[in-house]
Amino acid sequence: MQVVKESSSMRMVGESRMESIYERVRLLVSGNAVVVFTMSGCCMCHVVKQLLFGLGVGPTIVELDRDVAGKEIHALLFQLAGDGQQQPVPAVFVGGKFLGGIETVMACHINGTLVPLLKQAGALWL
């Protein structure tokens, strides 16, 4: 078995790649009222998408398992999710800010704060 040590140039390439992934995500979420990062077979992702569609929102949807940079974006979202209790997908961004996952979106919907957030972001006009 051969052990390959990570060189500083390999780390720099990895860091550079993550910076470009971060920049891609930043541009995507800042340029769209609502962005949802999902996995195509995830039932909770489906629930969030159907809720938003039902409210009249047309979110930008990125299915990570069908995106060439999906694994890297998934890793970035895992960092955003934070405490390890929350799953990294679905990840919902509203008005350029990370709202959260299924728990947060459903809580906002139930307590009546989701629609005002969507209106403020320009995702709803009524």
Give a structural overview.
- The chain is globular, with a radius of gyration of 16 Å.
- It has 5 helices and 4 strands, in the order H-E-H-E-H-E-E-H-H.
- 52% of the residues lie in helices and 13% in strands.
- The protein has a 4-stranded mixed β-sheet with strand order 2-1-3-4, with helices on both faces.
- The model is unreliable at 1-13 (pLDDT under 50).
- 24% of the residues are buried.
- The chain has one domain (8-121): Glutaredoxin (3-Layer(aba) Sandwich), CATH 3.40.30.
- By secondary structure, the chain is α+β, with helices and mostly antiparallel strands.
- Strand 1 (34-38), helix 2 and strand 2 form a beta-alpha-beta unit.
Summarize this structure briefly.
With 126 residues, the chain is α+β, with helices and mostly antiparallel strands. It has a single domain, classed as Glutaredoxin, CATH 3.40.30.10. It has helices at residues 8-30, 43-55, 70-81, 102-111, 114-121; strands spanning 34-38, 60-63, 91-94, 97-100.
